[in-house]
Each structure stands twice: as C-alpha cells, then as structure tokens.
C-alpha cells in the first residue's frame, strides 16, 4: 500500500484561519485521544466511526464524507474515510490527504495516522513503535490498545495481541472491536473454546449487527461445522443483506462441501446486488477461488480478467498489480511458467507507471523477486531461484518486516524441498507463514521424502482441512492434499 506524495498543501493556507477555531474544538475526554475538528464535523465523524467499528464499512462512508466536507482540514476524517473506500485508489487518495493534514491534528491523532502510513508502507516495526508511543501517551484509551493489538496480530504475534485486546476491554467493556479480534487471535492459536467465548461476548454486545454472527460463522467453518456456519452467515445477512463477507463465507462453506455450483450461485447473488465495483471485485475474486478449488484454471483466469477490468476502468494501479500477480500465481500452478513471469513483470510495470510512493513501489519490486524465484524453481533452475531468494531475503531484512521475513523462509524451504534437503526444508517452512495451508502441504511432502508417512499424513490433512476463508493458496492444494492423505 502507500504513502503520501508531496501534495495538496495549498488547502492549509486557505484553512489556516478556520483551523485556529477547529483546534480549539479538540475534545480531550479523560485520557482519550482528542478529535481535532469542528463540532459539526465531529458529530458526523462519530456516527461514521460507530458504524465503521461495527464493520458496517459501506454504511459509514457517507458520514465520513460529510465530516470532511464540513471540515476539509480534518485529518482523522480522511483517515477513516480511506478505509471506507471501495477501491485501493480511493484508499490511497484519502490516506494521502490525512498525512498531508497531519500537522493540524493532536499528538495522538498524528501517531495514529503516521502508524497507518507506516503499516501501509510495510514498515511494521515503525508502526509498532508509533502505536507503543500512542499507548504510553493515552494508556486509558481503548482504541490505542486496540491499534497496538492489531499490529501484533498482523505479525502473527497473537499472545501480545491478546494482552492488548484484553486491556482495551478492561478500559471499556462495551467497546466491541477487541472481542472480535480476541476471537480470531484465539482461533489462530487453536484455542477454539476461548475463541467461541470471545465471539459470543461480541454477539452479546451488538446482537443486531451482522459481523458478530459472521465472525462466529468463520470459526464454525474452521472447525468443519459447515452447515452451522452457513446458518450463522445467513443470520448475519438478516441484519444486512449486503454484508459482503457473509455471502463469501457461505460460498466458502459450499466449496468445502464440494458444492461449487451452489457456491457460485451465492456469489452471483452478491454480484447482482453489489453497490459498487469494490463489491463486484469481491464477488469476482471469490468466484476465482471457487473455480481454482474445483480445478478449473481457465474459468478462474476469466474471473480475474473481469476483476482486472474493473480496476483498469479507474486506473487503480495497486489493484491492477494485485490482480496481475494473482493471474501469475494461477498460471504458475497450471504449469505455464513463462506466462506467469509475464504477468509478474506487468504488475511491476503498472506500478512503476503510477504516481504511488516509492515505498509502495518498493513492495512490488520485492514481490517480483519473490515471484521470479518461484518461477525459476518451477523451471528447475535452482541457482537462479537461490539468487533471487537471497536478494529478497536481504531486502526484507533491511525493512524489518516479520511477515515478509516469513515469506523469505518459505522461499528457502521451497528451494530446499526441491533439492531434497528435507530437514532444511522443514526447518525453513516451520518459520514460514503458519496461516498459509500451502506451507503445511510442502511440509507434508518433506516428511514424505524423509519416509515419515505418519507425519506426512498429519500435515496433508492439516493442509486439506485448514478451512481458510476465500484462500487461493488452500484452493491450489486442498484436493491434492486430501488425495495424498488418503493414499497413505
């Protein structure tokens, strides 16, 4: 994602007289992060924030738009408006405005905004440092703790994330977002009883909202309770028929049940009722996953072409690049290595031609090294694969990004597996992303190579039954993993 360019400071001059009044309206409640804006804009902002924090994102956007219309210098208004956008392009444009206006905001708001910018630029540890400062400055603000918890969560450090979420709930037991995240953190740790407890509390707090039922449905899907999961997704849709994630969740359950045609009917329903191209793109991507899971790569690529066309229509460079990488991955899995490489290269070209920041472009450049290494590996060119993987590892190490460090370990594990260095493969893959079921499949192959059939079967089953929501990596290997497990 991205950061600001040198932009739009002319607005500041025009608004300078107004801002003296606005800053005076910053509300500093007991130990809470102030909201630096006018009274009217603040009212709209709080209405939007309430909806946004309950994940009624599309519904929140109109209130944030009203807030920044009333106060064009409202940095936090633009920040939350960025997350309510239906396109990547809209996200970056509004984040840029928030960053450009950051000097008008309070210290706490500045740390929040700059933390989002750092995370967008893949500087995860810089974001953590900013949010730790935010918590130190506002130790009694539940949102500060929730933000820091989200940073730990994003780097798969679930125990410290849980501590921050618990602190947020202690400060305000009625603040619902941390209960949702607690549920997911426990789920990822395999603590399903604790996850269920958190989601039930989440439902208790906001029983007339869709997301608590959606989150609980995802836990049930993870546990293989597909029909119960579908029932909870349908309950979420009773409260909001346009709740995108629940349509996608129903489709995912149907895919796991082998009912791919029914899954795509559900996704067609989502597409037909879509309120914007962001929701249409979500339907296309979920269709892609369904076709890949069924083994129809041709149809999957057709869905990606449609998804790409929606981004191309508004010249949404980051979305276009992401779609091209997804196409490349599908082609790579289908054995079309040169075509895959061409898609990865085009993704870089699209980003280089954009007006996005160098930090964002750097992420695409690093991603190309990762993908080029995978192509070389598929072509059995171990020397080229190793060279690209090492270059990727060094670049990731330089920015201190734990998530991308896991991708570097994944590459090294894949290379070791190809070279039949099974112990090395297992050591590297054990440090890779453990929320990617494809890595369990690779570990199963390594155990099989070592002659450990029992462990191989265990990991094939872990890969096959991982039950990730709308996951291309699982779709690539789910059926293969199941067959391999059955053959042992």
Structural write-up:
With 488 residues, the chain is mainly alpha-helical. Among the domains are: 10-142, Serine Threonine Protein Phosphatase 5, Tetratricopeptide repeat, CATH 1.25.40; 316-423, Serine Threonine Protein Phosphatase 5, Tetratricopeptide repeat; 434-488, no CATH class. The chain has helices at 10-24, 39-53, 57-70, 75-83, 88-100, 107-120, 124-137, 142-154, 158-171, 177-188, 192-205, 210-222, 226-239, 244-256, 260-273, 277-294, 297-313, 317-333, 337-352, 358-378, 382-399, 402-418, 422-429, 437-450, 453-464, 472-487. Mean pLDDT is 93; it is low at 1-28.
List the helices and strands and how they pair.
Elements lengths: L9 H15 L14 H15 L3 H14 L4 H9 L4 H13 L6 H14 L3 H14 L4 H13 L3 H14 L5 H12 L3 H14 L4 H13 L3 H14 L4 H13 L3 H14 L3 H18 L2 H17 L3 H17 L3 H16 L5 H21 L3 H18 L2 H17 L3 H8 L7 H14 L2 H12 L7 H16 L1
């Amino acid at each position: 994602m991205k950061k600001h360019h040198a932009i739009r400071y002319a607005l500041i001059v025009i608004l300078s007289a107004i801002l003296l009044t606005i800053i005076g309206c910053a509300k500093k409640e007991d130990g809470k992060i102030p909201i630096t804006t006018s009274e009217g804009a603040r009212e709209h902002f709080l209405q939007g924030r309430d909806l946004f924090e309950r994940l009624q994102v599309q519904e929140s956007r109109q209130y944030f738009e009203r807030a920044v219309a009333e106060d064009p210098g409202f940095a936090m208004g633009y920040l939350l408006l960025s997350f309510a956008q239906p396109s990547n392009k809209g996200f970056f444009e509004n984040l840029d405005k928030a960053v450009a206006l950051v000097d008008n905001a309070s210290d706490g708001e500045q740390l929040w905004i700059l933390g989002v910018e750092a995370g967008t630029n893949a500087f995860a540890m810089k974001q953590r440092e900013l949010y730790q400062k935010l918590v130190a400055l506002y130790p009694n603000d539940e949102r500060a703790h929730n933000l820091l918890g989200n940073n730990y969560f994003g780097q798969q450090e679930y125990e410290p994330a849980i501590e921050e979420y618990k602190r947020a709930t202690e400060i305000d037991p009625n603040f619902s977002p941390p209960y949702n995240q607690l549920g997911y953190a426990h789920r990822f740790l395999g603590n399903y009883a604790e996850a269920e407890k958190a989601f039930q509390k989440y439902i208790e707090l906001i029983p007339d909202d869709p997301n608590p039922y959606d989150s609980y449905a995802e836990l049930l899907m993870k546990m293989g309770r597909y029909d119960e999961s579908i029932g909870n997704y349908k309950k979420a849709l009773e409260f909001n028929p346009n709740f995108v994630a629940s349509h996608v969740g129903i489709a995912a359950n149907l895919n796991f049940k082998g009912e791919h045609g029914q899954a795509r009917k559900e996704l067609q329903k989502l597409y037909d009722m879509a309120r914007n191209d962001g929701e249409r793109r979500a339907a296309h991507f979920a269709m892609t996953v369904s076709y890949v899971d069924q083994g129809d790569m041709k149809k999957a690529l057709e869905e990606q072409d449609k998804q790409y066309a929606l981004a191309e229509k508004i010249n949404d460079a980051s979305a276009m690049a992401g779609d091209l990488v997804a196409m490349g991955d599908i082609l790579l899995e289908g054995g079309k290595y040169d075509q895959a490489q061409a898609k990865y290269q085009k993704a870089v070209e699209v980003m280089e031609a954009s007006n996005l920041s160098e930090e964002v472009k750097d992420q695409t450049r690093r991603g190309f090294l990762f993908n080029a290494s995978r192509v070389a590996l598929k072509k059995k060119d171990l020397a080229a694969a190793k060279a690209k993987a090492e270059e990727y590892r060094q670049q990731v190490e330089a920015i201190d990004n734990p998530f991308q460090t896991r991708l570097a370990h994944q590459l090294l594990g894949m290379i070791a597996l190809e070279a039949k260095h099974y112990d090395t493969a297992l050591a590297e893959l054990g440090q890779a992303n453990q929320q990617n079921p494809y890595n369990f499949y690779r570990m199963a192959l390594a155990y099989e190579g070592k002659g450990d059939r029992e462990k191989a079967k265990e990991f094939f089953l872990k890969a096959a039954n991982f039950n990730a929501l709308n996951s291309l990596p699982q779709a690539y290997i789910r059926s293969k993993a199941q067959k391999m497990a059955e053959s042992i």
